[in-house]
Specification:
Chain A has 466 residues and is an alpha/beta fold. Chain A contains 24 helices and 12 strands. In chain B, a hairpin with a 7-residue loop joins β10 and β11. Chain B is an alpha/beta fold. The chains are: A alpha/beta (466), B alpha/beta (228), C alpha/beta (255).
């Protein structure tokens, strides 16, 4: 997927003019926020669990090499095959080699953000292998040829009417806006795909070092059908998903669904340890786990390391006023919302993405709801500093702030310059109290009036009057 | 150099480990933590026993759309399943896990009920399996795969019945996992924690049941499983 | 007993745009029994530089603000955002500066936002003032989420004679100001401030108050553009009874 984050402002403008998107985002906001609040209220220990959850993630990250070794050993003992990929190209090659060597012509795939990130779907199709997304949201955006717009609801930007048209076209049915009927259609179509597929690809929510297990979490049950029916199961995931033990996993699972959908627990949480065993009546014959780095090891040694705590719950975007105004596509890459504004620069490079960390008022809602207490605004600031150091934002903006700082360090000059400015504005604005238009202030006055200053500055008045 | 070697070099550099692997003491700490897993904070809600625990399980399970039947003896499960099939007007056809416990479940002798054993096929309307454990905290079933309990019974059919002996009902996930550790050592291939029937909100954020897995989930709680 | 000395950090916006907030702060602090001083060499806390990623300039301004205010027993600012900068961010900003890290931490311990200072430190329970109006209160993001200020302004407002406090549906929601954000992304900011404006208007209030001039200029500017009748003031103006000055964005011609 081409990175279009540099066009964030234009993307956002377009999104703001889309009334259908506004309607969809209003539902995201009302639905997710209220449900999370209710789920949190139902669990008095939630805040304490957040603290513990953050601690677990930090513990792992500080020992990631060791937990990775431990996981690898136990997963192998259970019969899984482990592959390492330093970047997306390596990961794609590993998966394609597996599919090709087993003569796979149809692959089912459940949702994996890492697979999105490394553009696995495109690579599979370029190879002439048919791919069917089994997460319903992913299936919808596959039909629409669009990228996901939300971590856990990839098609949240789409209205029922739009989905109805897509389904009618793809399934040759009469258009219907009945959600139950649309789900039933997808169920029928996908059922056959599960049975016909020669390989299933899933992601992973957690990797457990204690047992060498892969944990997947869904509400639909599609991950289980994706990995449980074909003879070949490929897990595509990234190295930071490790947890030491199942107890650690359960603590994080208690946070995950409550933070995202507001459920007490997701419908299906599955712990997979190796392929089919002796005597088993179902399950894949082969299980391959592709562990992708693609920038994580670099993040580990950088100030944005805390971003690697992320468990992909979506709470940050569900509560972000900027995301809820512009939607996911404006962010211009796989990861969206506040977590995307930190993660995307780390994975795709700050040169390509510097407007993302700027697209925040630092209101702090994201950090407040993050289940592993990632200091998201603080990490966006790290990227702003990096962008400023490299001179990425427009020169006028940089020059403006430098000039202002120059004056702010020289009180006499500062008072002279700004004292005169506000006195003038104060006089000009005295009768009306505000300006609808003002030279050099169009960024402000394009959407709001500028209240006039009172006139003489506070310190000036104090100096004279007191 | 292999991708693995290069990856570990990157990790060591990022973690300031020097050349290789990190200090012995850290390695021991990691092995120790893995070897001796301890629960973190378990919510007070989960710390209930007896009838209170059963009531919590039932309340949480019903809240996510699970149907519950409670029978006194394993032999009454078949009749409970018949009631479920009749109530929803489902085909009188069930696929049972080849679990010996279901040999005692009273599925024989129901006129018009077709009983097959094994894993699910695409045209089985209803699958019946046995839970390894249950978690009252969130009304969650813990299914563990084995030759006697194929996983697909809980995913492929449109209706799923899970038999849960009350003796296997725990308060928290941690207790159930400890049960699995003690019984199996290495966990079974697939341990499925199931909390309600399949659902999706991917269409207009409307909650819709039966996305891929079962539309209906019935849990039959069984007080006694002795063959008497 | 000598009175404790408060260094008033007026903030650049109050200094330049709305001096009445500074005078209100002095009034409230003196009534609470403090000796208030306003160091003349103060300018800005450096937050604009800090937030655009200009760490160097931000650190320079942090050092000069600390040096200027560290002699006082307390440092008080009529802004959650600027107080948050001094209290939370200065120690982070100077953590790597061995000569200043400890000073920044010690300094942070003395810093307070005005209204929370009155309630938590000065122990003010009630203020004898009158304001006959239906009022709603907007929680500024930094005040609420960095400094935990929520009940303090409401408690003091509840004691004002004639004042009826009505809550918005989402008083905690960001107004879309965000410093330079509001001019870099005006369209997004507009959407956010419009929601705020609708929430305010939906309460039926005559007046909206907040503790941060940045939010207030943004909200007042948008309400004016929408031809709203709702008046906008800093909470300190009401608490100090300074209703003689026209509301933010209103001229002498309008009252």
């Amino acid at each position: 997927m081409e990175v279009t984050s540099l066009r964030f402002r234009e993307n956002a403008r377009r999104a703001l003019r889309d009334p259908q998107l506004a309607r969809a985002l209003r539902m995201v906001r009302e639905g997710f926020q209220q449900r999370r609040a209710q789920a949190v209220a139902n669990l008095p220990e939630f805040e304490e669990l957040r603290r513990i959850g953050a601690g677990i993630r930090d513990h792992v990250l500080e020992r990631l090499d060791l937990y990775l070794e431990a996981f690898e050993r136990r997963a192998r003992e259970a019969g899984a095959q482990i592959h390492y990929a330093l970047d997306g190209a390596e990961a794609r090659r590993i998966v394609l080699d597996l599919l090709r060597s087993r003569g796979v012509s149809l692959v089912t795939k459940s949702k994996s953000m890492v697979a999105e990130e490394i553009e696995l779907a495109e690579a599979i199709e370029a190879e002439g292998i048919r791919r069917v997304e089994t997460d319903l949201g992913e299936y919808i955006i596959q039909l629409a040829h669009e990228p996901p717009s939300h971590l856990i609801g990839p098609a949240v930007h789409m209205t029922v009417e739009r989905i109805a048209r897509l389904f009618a076209e793809a399934h040759g049915t009469e258009p219907t806006t009945d959600a139950q009927e649309l789900v039933a259609q997808a169920r029928r179509v996908l059922r056959q795909k599960y049975l016909d597929a020669e390989a299933g690809i899933t992601g992973a929510n957690f990797l457990v070092a204690e047992t060498g297990s892969v944990i997947t979490v869904t509400n639909e049950g599609n991950a289980e059908l994706t990995q449980g029916l074909p003879p070949l199961h490929i897990v595509v995931t990234s190295i930071e998903k490790l947890v030491p033990t199942m107890e650690d996993a359960f603590t994080l699972l208690r946070l995950l669904a409550r933070s995202g959908t507001g459920q007490e627990f997701a419908t299906y949480t599955t712990v997979l340890t190796g392929p089919r065993r002796e005597g088993d009546l179902d399950g894949p014959e082969e299980m391959h786990i592709v562990l992708v780095d693609n920038g994580r090891s670099r993040m580990l040694g950088s100030p944005v390391r805390p971003m690697l705590r992320c468990i992909r719950c979506s709470a940050c975007m569900n509560h972000c006023p900027v995301y809820l105004a512009v939607g996911g596509h404006a962010y211009g890459w796989t990861y969206v919302g506040p977590m995307g504004s930190v993660l995307t620069p780390a994975l795709a490079g700050i040169e390509q993405t510097w407007p993302l960390p700027e697209a925040s008022t630092f209101c702090g809602r994201c950090e407040e709801v993050c289940p592993v207490r990632i200091p998201l605004p603080g990490l966006m600031r790290v990227w702003r500093e990096e962008a400023f150091r490299r001179g990425l934002p427009p020169a006028t903006q940089r020059a403006g702030i430098r000039l202002w700082a120059f004056l702010a360090k020289r009180p006499r000059l500062y008072r002279l310059a700004f004292g005169l400015a506000v006195r003038t504005l104060g006089l000009l604005g005295r009768r009306r109290g505000r300006f609808s238009r003002l030279p050099l202030a169009s960024g402000w006055t394009s959407v709001r009036d500028l209240p006039a200053p009172q006139g003489r500055t506070f310190l000036e008045q104090l100096g004279r009057g007191r | 150099m292999s991708a693995r070697e290069r990856l570990f070099e990157r990790l060591w550099r990022a973690l300031g480990r020097g050349g290789s692997g990190g200090p012995e003491e850290l390695r021991r700490e990691v092995e120790q933590r893995i070897a001796d897993p301890r629960p973190h904070l378990v919510p007070a809600r989960a710390k209930v026993a007896g009838e209170e625990r059963i009531a919590l399980f039932v309340r949480m399970a019903k809240a996510v759309g699970t149907e519950i039947e409670r029978v006194g003896h394993i032999g009454e499960v078949g009749e409970a399943v018949m009631r479920f099939l009749r109530f929803h007007n489902l085909p009188r056809q069930v696929r049972l896990a080849p679990d010996p416990l279901l040999d005692l479940a009273g599925f024989e002798g129901h006129a018009l009920l077709e009983v097959r054993r094994g894993t699910a096929s695409a045209d089985d309307p209803t699958g019946v399996t046995v839970a390894e454990a249950g978690v009252a905290e969130t009304g969650t079933l813990v299914l563990a795969s084995s030759p006697e309990r194929p996983t697909m019974l809980a995913y492929l059919p449109e209706n799923c019945v899970v038999v849960l002996p009350i003796a296997r009902l725990d308060g928290s996930y941690e207790e159930s996992w400890q049960r699995i550790r003690e019984r199996f050592g290495r966990p079974p291939r697939s341990v499925n924690l199931v909390t309600g029937p399949s659902r999706t909100a991917d269409i207009g954020l409307q909650l819709t049941m039966g996305a891929h897995g079962p539309r209906r989930l019935l849990v039959v709680l069984v007080d006694r499983t002795d063959s008497a | 007993m000598t009175r404790a000395r408060v260094g008033l950090f007026a903030t650049c916006l109050v200094d330049l745009w709305r001096p009445v907030v500074g005078f209100s702060a002095i009034e409230l602090l003196e009534r609470a029994g403090y000796a208030v001083e306003v160091p003349a060499a103060q300018t800005c806390c450096g937050q604009p530089a800090y937030n655009v990623g200009d760490r160097e300039d931000a650190a320079d301004l942090a050092r000069r603000t600390i040096a200027l205010f560290e002699p006082y027993d307390h440092v008080v600012a009529p802004s959650g955002s600027c107080a948050g900068m001094l209290k939370i961010h200065y120690p982070q900003l100077l953590a790597g500066d061995s000569a200043w890290a400890e000073r920044a931490r010690a300094f942070a311990g003395k810093v307070h936002e005005l209204v929370s200072f009155l309630v938590r430190v000065a122990g003010v329970e009630r203020i004898e003032e009158t304001c006959r109006a239906r009022v709603t209160y907007h929680d500024s993001c930094s005040g609420l989420r960095e400094l935990g200020i929520r009940d303090e302004p409401r408690r003091l407002l509840a004691g004002i004679e004639g004042l009826e406090l009505v809550e918005m549906r989402e008083p905690h929601l960001c107004c879309g100001f965000g410093g330079t954000f509001c001019v870099k992304y005006p369209e997004i900011s507009e959407r956010m401030v419009d929601e705020k404006a609708e929430d305010i208007e939906g309460t039926g209030a005559d007046m909206v108050l907040a503790g941060d001039l940045g939010c207030l200029l943004n909200i007042a500017g948008r309400l004016a553009r929408r031809n709203s009748r709702v008046q906008v003031r800093h909470v300190a103006e009401v608490l100090a009874g300074r209703l003689d000055v026209p509301p933010i964005g209103r001229g002498e011609g309008e009252g």
